[in-house]
Amino acid sequence: MKRPYWTLAVALLLMALPLLAGRVGEAAPDFVGTDSNAKTHKLSDFRGKVVVLEWHNQGCPYTKKHYDSGNMQKLQKEWTSKGVIWLTVISSAPGEQGYVTAEQENAYLKKTNSTPTAALLDPTGVIGHLYGAKTTPHMYVINPKGLLVYEGAIDDKPTADPADIAGATNWVQAGLKETTAGKQVSTPVTRPYGCSVKYAK
Predict the structure, then answer these.
(1) Model pTM greater than 0.85?
(2) Whether residue 132 has pLDDT greater than 80
(3) Which of 33, 61, 111, 164 has the most Cβ atoms closer than 10 angstroms to its Cβ?
């Protein structure tokens, strides 16, 4: 029995996605996403600005490490106040850990005093697969020219223990300092850590 053409097309697309994922030094893949306030955002609209992409799952212990401690919110507030665009991306599928409705995400942002530029809801995983996001958190930094200049972990302490934050080297902080100063990121790729992104099965 022959497969329907659409089934074959979907299979080929899924096979190609890892090849489409952004690589440091190359143009960051463009996308269109809808945030928790039903506003549409296109990455290319932010050309000329530094952009951070932060993959998020509020039920993940590694995410909770950086939110319960206020570490992620501190970064968000510091850099958005300097004109950096910070996009939190939630790629958890319906029925999976971390999936939220727009109302639930807005309540969470208020409860945790989080201040990203926007929280993008990506339940189909299109944006996540486009970037090859593997963990929560998984961080990306895009420079004003639209090039991906950092990809990986938030810091060098791959644990869920908030006590490790104080002594950690924060790769995102370092990358943002260098990028906003017009310098090349000295550590452009690190290994991300956290819970696996809960894509649709």
Answers:
(1) yes
(2) yes
(3) 33
